[in-house]
């Protein structure tokens, strides 16, 4: 099949490389406002270069991958749907929930499949954890812990346009908590601090946060995030039930150092960044998209799914700023 890619920055170029290596993908058509980025992709992957998103959609592509800046996501999703081209779009659907809801309303009734990029749903550990929960191996859950710690903060320009750490980083934890447990979040309480880069504070954001989520069955989920983890990229989940407890990410490349006498775990080189930690997951995610394009499976992560994680991020952002618990119902109604 022929796949178009819109946006060839860090993640777009990574997706181009991944798609190039998939047996189902025969050719790529790419576009980026920066001509040099498109030229580089053409040279590396034999991609055809188009001068605009419209030109990519008109180039006979079977599916489109949107890896452009967040502000462009709504318009590009709608353009692809109007053209009848299946869509893979990196999260989020839009910067603001009002825009995301508008996109959902605009595509309701369309048969064009849309997949939103939440790569942890395709990581082997998280897949196994979900299967264990669904099979009842843990009994009823009482506690979930989800962690995302970046090795260093993103650039100031990225932070200023990100919408904040809950919308940009923690949203992955929120999505995977919903997906693994099969439960919905009803209430949140969030705190945050700034102990590092001044530009994050100046942007009105926090660089380290904690959030307590109450799920609809009473399970408590604790989410920990930071832009500063000197040892590497740390993504983990613990699930504790009345019958058993399991962990995702508890492996030799875990960026954590034990000080217990005689303990040598973890013994591997720590994960450096998300592309290292989730290489296989990204490949599985884009393989799934080719199956969506082929019509052999439904979208594994819909706009509705992405918006649910977004509402949790909105609630945590409000909770952080107002120092109080916030229900999901409250932010939906605002």
Radius of gyration: 20 Å
Q: Which architecture of the largest domain does the CATH hierarchy give at level 2?
A: 2-Layer Sandwich
Largest beta sheet: strand ordering: 12-11-7-10-9-8-13
According to CATH, the fold-level topology of the largest domain is Dihydrodipicolinate Reductase, domain 2
- For the terminal residues, how far apart are their CA atoms? 43 Å
pLDDT under 50 segments (min length 5)? none
Give a count of the beta strands, DSSP E runs of length 2 or more: 13
Helix and strand succession? EHEHEHEHEHEHEHHEHEEEEHHHEH
Number of structurally distinct domains: 2
CATH class category of the largest domain: Alpha Beta
- Structural class from helices and strands? alpha/beta
Give the overall shape, derived from the CA principal axes.
globular
Name the helicity range. Answer: 40-55%
Largest sheet: 7 strands, mixed
Mean pLDDT: 95
Beta-sheet strand percentage?
15-25%
CATH superfamily of the largest domain: Dihydrodipicolinate Reductase, domain 2
Q: How many helical stretches?
A: 13
Domain GFO/IDH/MocA-like oxidoreductase: 126-242
Keywords: Oxidoreductase
GO molecular function: nucleotide binding; oxidoreductase activity
Domain Gfo/Idh/MocA-like oxidoreductase N-terminal: 1-118
What report would you give on this structure?
The protein is of the alpha/beta class and 334 residues long. It folds into two domains: 2-112, NAD(P)-binding Rossmann-like Domain (Rossmann fold, 3-Layer(aba) Sandwich); 121-277 and 309-333, Dihydrodipicolinate Reductase, domain 2 (2-Layer Sandwich). Helix content is 40%, strand content 21%. It starts with a strand and ends with a helix.
């Amino acid at each position: 099949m022929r796949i178009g890619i819109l946006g060839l920055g860090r993640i777009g170029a990574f997706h181009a490389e991944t798609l190039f290596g998939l047996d189902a993908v025969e050719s790529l058509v790419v576009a980026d406002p920066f001509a040099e980025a498109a030229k580089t992709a053409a040279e590396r992957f034999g991609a055809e270069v188009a001068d605009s998103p419209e030109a990519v959609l008109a180039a006979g592509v079977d599916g489109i991958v949107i890896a452009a800046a967040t502000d462009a996501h709504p318009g590009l999703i709608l353009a692809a749907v109007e053209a009848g081209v299946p869509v893979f779009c990196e999260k989020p659907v839009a910067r603001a929930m009002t825009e995301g809801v508008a996109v959902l309303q605009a595509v309701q009734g369309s048969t064009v499949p849309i997949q939103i990029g939440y790569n942890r749903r395709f990581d082997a550990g998280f897949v196994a954890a979900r299967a264990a929960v669904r099979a009842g191996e843990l009994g009823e859950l009482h506690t979930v812990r989800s962690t995302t710690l970046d090795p260093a903060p993103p650039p100031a320009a990225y932070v200023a346009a990100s919408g904040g750490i809950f919308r940009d980083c923690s949203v992955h934890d929120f999505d995977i908590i919903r997906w693994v447990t099969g439960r919905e979040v009803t209430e949140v309480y969030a705190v945050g601090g700034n102990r590092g880069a001044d530009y994050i504070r100046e942007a009105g954001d926090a660089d380290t946060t904690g959030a307590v989520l109450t799920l609809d069955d009473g399970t408590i989920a604790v989410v920990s995030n930071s832009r500063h983890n000197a040892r590497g990229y740390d993504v983990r989940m613990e699930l504790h039930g009345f019958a058993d407890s399991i962990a995702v990410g508890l492996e030799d490349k875990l960026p954590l150092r034990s000080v217990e006498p005689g303990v040598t775990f973890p013994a591997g080189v720590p994960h450096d960044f998300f592309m290292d930690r989730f290489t296989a997951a990204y490949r599985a995610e884009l393989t799934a998209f080719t199956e969506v394009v082929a019509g052999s499976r439904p979208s594994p992560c819909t706009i509705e799914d992405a918006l649910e994680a977004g509402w949790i991020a909105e609630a945590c952002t409000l909770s952080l700023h107002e120092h109080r618990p916030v229900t999901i119902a409250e932010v939906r109604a605002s």
